Amino acid sequence: MVINFLGEGIVMRVAGFSEAGGPEVLRILEVPTPEAGVGEVRVRVKAAGVQPFDLAVREGWTPPYLASPPPFPRVPGNEFAGVIDQVGDGVSGFAVGDEVMGNSVLGSYSEFVVAPVANVVAKPEGMPWEVAGAFPAAVMTPHIALEDLRVGEGDALLVHAAAGGVGAVAVQMAKIAGATVIGTASEGNHEYLRSLGAVPVLYGDGLADRVRAVAPHGIDAALDGAGGHALEVSLELVKDRDRIVTLVEHGRAGELGIRVTSKEKRSIARVAEAARWYADGRLALNLKGVYPWTRAADAHRQVATGHGRGKVVLVMD
């Protein structure tokens, strides 16, 4: 069922919600179709990535960069790929018909999304739409994290949750930078990590000793995508706490003297660089779930499990 929140006028369909709650609150709704303003482009969306961030928004969380909670209905999603169909005044470098991917402030689970031109980049030729839709956020976080960690030639980097969407990209980016990567994961993901160039290590009790066994010269930096015991192991193995980034234990970062990724460092230039690596065959993005956008609730349920390799994406019809 499509719910119309306008009655009349130019509308578009979105996968959104009119009250916070579980996955079941997501519905196909009709809302006003946005227009590109000065310095903006409007994109007909082909695919949109699904992240844990989106689940928190659906449950009622307001991102800290918003002054107040957005009105209902709310539409999750802050990464997308599609075709530009409208260009605002003052835009150069892009035209109607260009295939792009980018970031938005929510609203990507939509037929159309408007974004500043500074937030979009050309989609590499040959990149499937479903990969492009999940690409911007998947590469932004690890790109910032590895910069913050100062990962470079000869470093030994420990990546926790290395088979996940962010972890697997971090492994590949660190290899591009010349680092040796030790990745923690369940045994079923070890062959996958080897294919990415990482040395796999099993989670659980004795983790620190297993890491020492494969990295006898020590660990220079750690990217924590798991928290809990994994973070404790990072604190034990990395001497310089300024070279530990956690993606999950934000509340403890200050007291522990470790890092979280900086929102101020988000830039489409990072996505553009990663897109060049993708085009060169040095970076791949694995998808663990591809859903039609009418099944956004099911996509959220899969993300909530925390299991699987790579990203979940919605494909628009």
Output the radius of gyration: 20 Å
Q: Would you tell me which CATH topology of the largest domain applies?
A: Quinone Oxidoreductase, Chain A, domain 1
At the fourth CATH level, what is the homologous superfamily of the largest domain? Medium-chain alcohol dehydrogenases, catalytic domain
**Gap between N and C termini, in Å?**
16 Å
Helical/strand content category: alpha/beta
Share of helix among residues? 25-40%
- Classify the beta-strand content into a percent band: 25-35%
User: What is the CATH architecture term of the largest domain?
Assistant: Alpha-Beta Complex
> How would you spell out the order of helices and strands?
EEEEHEEEEHEHEHEHEHEHHEHE
The quaternary structure here is single chain
Largest sheet: 7 strands, mixed
Provide the domain count. Answer: 2
Principal-axis shape equals: globular
Please describe what this structure looks like:
The longest helix has 20 residues, at 129-148. By secondary structure, the chain is an alpha/beta fold. The strands form 3 sheets. Strands 4, 5, 6, 7, 8, 14 and 15 form a 7-stranded mixed beta sheet that branches. 45% of the residues are buried. The chain is globular. It folds into 2 domains: 2-137 and 267-315, Quinone Oxidoreductase, Chain A, domain 1, CATH 3.90.180.10; 150-258, 3-Layer(aba) Sandwich (Rossmann fold). The protein is built from 9 helices and 15 strands. Residues 1-8 have low confidence and may be disordered. 29% of the residues lie in helices and 26% in strands. The protein starts with a strand and ends with a strand. It has helices spanning 52-58, 129-148, 165-176, 190-196, 207-214, 229-237, 250-256, 268-279, 296-305; strands at 2-4, 11-16, 27-32, 40-50, 79-87, 99-103, 112-116, 120-122, 156-160, 180-185, 199-202, 221-224, 244-246, 287-292, 311-315.
